[in-house]
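Dear colleague,

As promised, here are the two records you asked about, laid out in our usual form so they can be pasted straight into your sheet.

NAME FIELD: protein one
SEQUENCE, THEN STRUCTURE:
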Amino acid sequence: MPQHIGIVGCSAEGAALCYRTICLEGAQWLGAHGHPEVTLHTFSLATYVERIERDDWQGVGELMIASGQKLAHAGADFLICPDNTIHQALRYVELRSPRPWVHIGAVVAQEAANRGFRRLGLMGTRWLIESDVYPAKLAERGLDYMRPTDEERDEIHRIIMEELVPGTIKPEAIAYHQQVMMRMKKAGCSAVVLGCTEIPLIMTDANSPLPVLDSTRLLARAALRRAIEEV
């Protein structure tokens, strides 16, 4: 039997997309309607945001550990988190975690290296963009990166938290992301990291000026491979 995947959720849209990807794409390995056992747990997003806004990353980590414990009790063999921002708290989590984690940044960096991308544009919440979640993992692969400007960070953050997280999609949000990505392309980026698990709701290879590295789906696929190949 494939291993049991535990999903530590944070925001609903990203967690739902990750879960759906695992369930739908599992059939590629396991036949029609097949997928590994999956359990999802999340605390209220408000609880996460309250701790993030006061820069309490250890507190964020405590929520992740508590979710992990619930998932381990439910039988999960390993854990994933379809939320880029709260990966900042993994340093408080991994040594105390009841199960091993698959790091979203490591998965994206590996995909970028495999596809020959050398300089990546980073998109995500201001919390994520100003962290070392991606710079650290990209550096391990010898990859360069580019962050949005301060003004761009503010607007992308607003779009994510006020529109995408509640599930609202507006043409203006798509156009703004395209504008930022085009600037990154002109600055020498060869691909763009969708470093928020809600951005894939509006941006794909079909409408992006740059090839996209969809962190949500890449994480789900990495979890599928681990669940199936490590049996």
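NAME FIELD: protein two
SEQUENCE, THEN STRUCTURE:
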Amino acid sequence: MKKKKSAALIVLSFIAFISLGLPDGLLGVAWPGIHGEFGLPLDALGLLLIFSTAGYTLSSFFSGPLVRRLGIGGLLTLSCGATSAALFVYAVTPFWWLFVGAAALGGLGAGAIDAGINSYVESNHSERMMQWLHASFGIGITMGPVIMTLGIRMTSRWQSGYFIVSLAQAALAIIFLMTKGLWKSVDSIPAGKEPVKKEASLGETFKNSKTILSMVMFFLYVGFEVGLGLWSYSLLTISRGVDTTLAGFVTGSYWAMFTFGRVCAGWYTHKLTVTKVLYISFILAFAGVFLLFLNTGNWVSVLGIALIGFSIAPVFPSLISDTANRVGVRHTANTIGMQISAAGFGAALVPSLAGVLARIYGLEVIPLYMMVTLALLFGLFILSRPRRRREPSIK
């Protein structure tokens, strides 16, 4: 019975992360229509991302007290309900200010899901399950561009995609409401795991230079990941003249390869050290960005986007797994929370700066900008490496 309950909870966790990825996959395809309909400049996307990030950071910061008060099941129910409401507003409002306000509500829902489920899986399951958890996010974010592309093709309106996913989020909220009793027996400290003694205070952790490096790494990585997903559709359609339907599916292929990469990572990461996994990922990502930068043909661009998606897939879970190795066990718990907060800011600010640069220099600046971002991330990763410490493989 205990194994069945554990299996049910991990399935619900995967479903929660699919729901987390769905809205993120919609925006990149919808944005050309949104900024056209509201009469906005191309870089107005930054305002939307900032409000979304504010909600995300707030709810993830307070996820601990929320879980204690509502339980994980109750929190998932409330979060999916909030996300559903935000997407419904996207689909029906004629006011840009209300659209932006809904982004904050959607961020509140996303942050609570992200922090709550990550904490549960990290405490109760293996690193392989952590990779597959984030692969389920990839499933959701892969489905997003496809849903939006099909919605636009059938109705000629981007609002239809948001309406469809709003209904899906409402259905998930009902599922989590009906199953919230399953989460009640989850132990805060699972069998076989002991609490870390003499954990560092937040102040001590913040003074740790490795923690600051880690935060900047997550800021850059998530900004890179989200930025390419958001801007590849505009780059292909507006700058390179690719058919809108094809570009929508190419954007989906980025997230599809991202998902496939994380599924594969669940199988091979236990045979390699974290450092080797990350070095391989960075090298392949550089190759993909270079192909996108070359702009020698549509299929070369498609190959570059797909290669980037596949190669960066293990990076976020691997960096999470490597946290203790970088900063030390006493600082691990605090640093993980700080990293996730920094990741939220990176998801807003890095793509926003890309929009500003695209408005000034044109969309073709985006591959170069992404290459510089990746180079900075790689440099910080090298600086963060612990010296003369034997590093275990991911198990």
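A couple of things worth noting about protein two: The chain has 15 helices and no strands. Residues 1-183 form a domain with the Growth Hormone; Chain: A; fold (CATH 1.20.1250.20).

Best,
R.
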